[in-house]
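From the pipeline queue, job 12 of 40. The input is one protein chain; the requested action is below.

Action: predict structure.
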Amino acid sequence: MTDVSLLPRFDPTDPALLDDPYPIYAALRAAGPLSRGAPGQWVVHRYDDVRAALRDRRLGAEFPARYQEISAGTGPSFSFRRRMVLNLDPPEHTRIVRMMSKSVYSNLSHDGIRVLVDDLLEHALDRGELDAMADLALPLASTVMCELIGIPQIDRDQLRQRVLDLGAAFIPYVPPERRDAVDETVTWLRGYLSELLRQRQRDRRDDLLSNMAQLQADGAELTDEEAVDHAAFLSFAGFETTVNLIAAGCSLLAGDPDSWRLLRADPALVPGAVEEMLRYESPIQMTGRFVREPVEVGGRTLRAGRMVLLLLASANHDESRFPEPGRFVVDRDPNPHLGFGGGAHVCLGAQLARVEARTLFGRLVERVAELGQPGPLERDRRPVFRGIRRAPVVVRPA
């Protein structure tokens, strides 16, 4: 067995990783199936190992309270992280997912998304240029999410900023100097959504909070605190992945005229192109698991009590699974990527992100003859997420 001290070390905050993670991932895969992370942490980076780990029940998503205290402190964000469906194991995870999924997708309007996309594109086409993040991704994803949850129009700008700020609660380790700000964001969201839930308990509407209120009235095991925290979680989970997927996709196509022409010639390729965007530039780069029972990964037995970091984006660029993984191929088939994770904890916002992205790119290929890239993509350099700040694109109407 290889000496642990000889294994490479992975640092999710390495500036080089935040700039361009893929050469680092390739080096890790070439070195072996495992690397070292923080103390007591293993890192998995090859496709077959990551995929198997995502489905292994010996690896849980629910971490001990002490781990969460070290990661986020003991303020409001601590209890928020402990309650998030992302960090729960069955049967609690199963119970919450069933209620959340029913509440979300019963209110999802494909026609409404199409109308919103057309309105956003109309303004962009008039100008001939746009920032795919600010002009398309953010307003589309935030409007859809606010409609689903039931956020009044007057409050949406403020809520969108709070949801963006909430992203810090999802990173593995929140620096002590940032914890007060994260706690303040969680407290504000809880107060706002609690009041809105109380309104829906008195007056039902066609939205997620009303569905939760109805579930409570029907005797479901769902406290007000759970409903509020899961609404706050969904406001982020159904937003963060979608905005970065759309902005990255626009930038990829703007810089690849051949792929753009291929999509315009055959719009039926759009759903597959969205999957390739998720593989090529995975919005969620990694996810964590807690070793509940000893488990073998990459020829090494990992002891209970250890943490495992699964590099989804590295798995999605594994040469053993994806031919030419560093090339963006809009008609790649098959494409069994892990962009949304896998197993029981597949991303709750996956279906929503796909619907929004497929609708937007479907309308884009119909209404735009040419895409161009007038300037470089600007990254939001955070661990875990492959975020974007600005994605400039020029357009010529069809």
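Job complete. The first helix runs from residue 15 to 19.
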